[in-house]
Amino acid sequence: MENEQLSEYQKELIRDTWQIVNQDQIHHGTVLFTRLFELEPALVFLFQYNSAHFSSVQECLGSSEFTEHIRKVMTVIDAAVQSLDSLPSLEEYLTGLGRKHRATGVKLESFNTVGESLLYALESGLGDMFTSDTRDAWSRLYATVVSAMSQGWWRDPQGQ
Ligand code: HEM
After folding, report:
1. Among the atoms of ligand 1, which is closest to the Cα of residue 111?
2. What rounded mean pLDDT belongs to the chain?
3. Residue 7 near residue 20, CB atoms below 8 Å
């Protein structure tokens, strides 16, 4: 898991901006997933709790189980931000997380839309602080996380 493309300046931009967004994880995470479901509405059907899927995006966004998923996503992003100097330490966890997501039926391509939606949520939350340098830094971090998760789509369960 390479993060050599992240400069110290980029790490600083990520840390400074995440500190703001992380203060209200559920709000910003809801903006992210609202955008995601606008771009790929069918993704809402992958969230099934007690074997039932939601009949609408609103129902999904309003459920406590889905709110927990938002918290889980934000916790993973937080872990990545806390580990900017040691991202390889997260690789095994992220590969396993990718494998779990493959099992839910989500396509790897949809994680491009998740990335777009993350940038959208950051921009909405940060306003003028979301400069093009900040966007580039976050894009790189997200690409690193997804690259580790993507190994869960093609590695077998023994990690070969
Ligand atoms: C296309 C977008 C996504 C879909 C459709 C999706 C779907 C799911 C589903 C159905 C579950 C199992 C139910 C649950 O725990 O709520 C799950 C679990 C989880 N998701 Fe996602 N997810 C998506 C994106 C993400 C992203 C971007 C992250 C973090 C970077 C993430 C982190 C997690 C975590 C940490 C779990 C719990 C895994 C465990 O039980 O060990 N998800 N996801």
Report:
1. 1
2. 94
3. no
Fold for the domain defined by 8-152: Globin-like (1.10.490)
Residue 149 has pLDDT above 70, yes or no: yes
Q: Using a 6 Å CB cutoff, which residues line ligand 1?
A: 43, 46-47, 65, 69, 72-73, 76, 97, 100-101, 104, 106, 110, 114
- Would you say residue 155 has pLDDT above 70? no
Cβ neighbours of 106 (radius 10 Å): 18
Using CA positions, which residue lies closest to atom 28 of ligand 1?
A: 73
pTM: 0.94
Q: Residue ranges of the domains in the chain?
A: 8-152
Cα 69 → chain centroid: 11
Nearest-atom index, ligand 1, CA of 49: 13
